[in-house]
Amino acid sequence: MIIMKLHHYGYAVKSIEKSLKEFEKLGYVAESEVITDVVQRVNLLFVNNGSDHLIELVAPIDEKIESPVTKILKKNGATLYHICYEVESIEETINDLKSKRYMVLLNPTPAVAFNNRRISFLYNPNLGLIEILEK
């Protein structure tokens, strides 16, 4: 059986700065500087309130440039949109999830936010979007 350890929750936000202020009111603090991922066309910031799990704030680099969160923000505004799990083997996990009817939306790719560890996004209509992060 594949073991998937919860790593973070991803929030699509319009503004990292404005959303950070709201999370700070809830006791969260920034765990990183704002990270720009030019491949994904997003800015990222991780926040934490002392728990084991991070929250990732994800905002488009520019409102005029299409990014993975642009449509989500237009439809829903700021919202939780994915859960990320850390896994030992990204290929093995993808194969396992595909056998359980998950669709791969992003093949394994290095992610600047995780020191170029590989990530993949998958979708299941009964669960939604998940991200897997290779250890």
Automatic annotation (TrEMBL):
SUPFAM superfamilies: Glyoxalase/Bleomycin resistance protein/Dihydroxybiphenyl dioxygenase. Residues 5-135 form the VOC domain. InterPro entries: Glyas_Bleomycin-R_OHBP_Dase, MMCE/EMCE_epimerase, VOC_core. GO terms for molecular function: lyase activity; metal ion binding; methylmalonyl-CoA epimerase activity. Signal peptide: none annotated. Keywords: Lyase, Metal-binding. One of its GO terms (biological process) is L-methylmalonyl-CoA metabolic process. This is Lactoylglutathione lyase. The lineage of its organism: Bacteria, Pseudomonadati, Bacteroidota, Flavobacteriia, Flavobacteriales.
